[in-house]
């Protein structure tokens, strides 16, 4: 006789677990692919540049079950704020692939627990998303890296897609709003500066995918210059074809009032270092910025794609150096700590201060200071 006290739709815990595993939902990734993923996602891996950075911004880094090779290297050239805030990335997780999305399907399938979703940038390197998904049987969701300027829409979309995957939609909107707020603040402080009061500036030593670069590596749309309405000598010269290797003659022709140096260039070592060139090259030593001592160090711009928090911190430094009256109320150390605390430290201000202390002197030469030339 059937026990009437037992509901007819009663399921054992095993049946419930099976049902939950098979419940799915659809998500549209950055390539417009319709990807079926589990309804609830607890385990992921991040493949390619910026994907783990984005997950950390969304405060969901505890969901990873493995890392790329790039996260296991502790060096100045790998001093990324999101990694510094999470030293467990380099010690606590197995490696599932090489850098820049060079995934190893066999290693992925040996991960325990198995990831439920692979979040991937660099969709043109390594296995194509559909092929990787076929080889592993794990859904692959593609996002773009984007940036804070020309490709801001891609950046926002990527944060929202990852937020949907890991259930951090609200946090994604908070991060987007944080970027909006800081950029608007920088713009508001500097938008009405007359052209006559704007010095000409150059940024050298911008790191790229190939690693640290020399003084001739610049950025036409360097965000800290754009956000503070500074005159970028490189941006105004449409004759530049390769911003990664501007000619020495062109820099001398521009003769900027102020030079900023991305301190990642020190990693070049020896004579290739932008700092060494400014100190010893007779032609560069004739530049008015060098002659007047207006050469300043800034935090690294690109390390495994863009460090967006460092971009904002550099922007406040540039603004404060060029327009001190307009940034009088900004304490640069506190502002930088605030930025890192929000983006990568889950609101832990003490950890934010620790990250600041590490990264400000990571190359042995302090950022946000006048360099000895």
TrEMBL record:
Biased composition (Polar residues): 1-13
Entries under Pfam families matching the protein: Peripla_BP_2
PROSITE patterns: FE_B12_PBP
Domain Fe/B12 periplasmic-binding: 43-326
Region of interest (Disordered), ranges: 1-22
Stated name of the protein: Iron(III) dicitrate-binding protein
Organism: Methanosarcina barkeri str. Wiesmoor
Source organism phylogeny: Archaea, Methanobacteriati, Methanobacteriota, Stenosarchaea group, Methanomicrobia
């Amino acid at each position: 006789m059937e026990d009437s006290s037992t509901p007819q739709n009663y399921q054992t815990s095993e049946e419930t677990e099976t049902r939950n595993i098979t419940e799915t939902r659809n998500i549209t990734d950055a390539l417009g692919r319709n990807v079926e993923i589990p309804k609830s996602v607890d385990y992921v891996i991040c493949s390619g540049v910026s994907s783990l950075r984005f997950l950390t911004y969304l405060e969901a880094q505890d969901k990873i079950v493995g890392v790329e090779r790039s996260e296991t290297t502790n060096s100045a050239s790998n001093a990324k704020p999101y990694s510094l805030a999470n030293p467990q990335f380099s010690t606590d997780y197995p490696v599932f692939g090489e850098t820049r999305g060079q995934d190893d399907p066999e290693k992925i399938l040996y991960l325990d627990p198995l990831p439920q979703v692979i979040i991937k940038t660099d969709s043109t390197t390594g296995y194509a998303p559909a092929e990787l998904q076929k080889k592993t049987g794990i859904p692959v969701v593609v996002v773009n890296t984007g940036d804070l300027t020309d490709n801001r829409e891609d950046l926002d979309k990527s944060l929202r897609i990852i937020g949907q995957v890991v259930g951090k939609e609200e946090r994604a909107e908070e991060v987007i709003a944080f970027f909006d707020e800081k950029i608007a603040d920088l713009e508001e402080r500097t938008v009405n500066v007359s052209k006559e009061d704007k010095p000409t500036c150059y940024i050298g030593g911008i790191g790229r995918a190939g690693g640290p670069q020399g003084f001739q590596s610049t950025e036409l749309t360097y965000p800290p210059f754009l956000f503070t309405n500074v005159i970028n000598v490189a941006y105004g010269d449409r004759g530049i074809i390769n911003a990664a290797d501007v000619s020495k003659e062109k820099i001398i022709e521009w003769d900027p009032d102020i030079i900023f140096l991305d301190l990642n260039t020190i990693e070049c070592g020896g004579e290739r270092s932008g700092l060494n060139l400014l100190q010893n090259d007779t032609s560069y030593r004739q530049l008015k910025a060098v002659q007047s001592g207006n050469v300043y160090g800034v935090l690294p711009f690109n390390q495994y794609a863009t460090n967006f928090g460092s971009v904002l911190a550099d922007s406040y430094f540039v603004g404060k150096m060029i327009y001190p009256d307009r940034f009088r109320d900004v304490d640069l150390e506190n502002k930088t700590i605030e930025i890192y605390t929000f983006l990568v430290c889950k609101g832990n201000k003490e950890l934010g201060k620790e990250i600041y202390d590490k990264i400000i002197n990571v190359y042995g030469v302090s950022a946000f200071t006048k360099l000895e030339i």
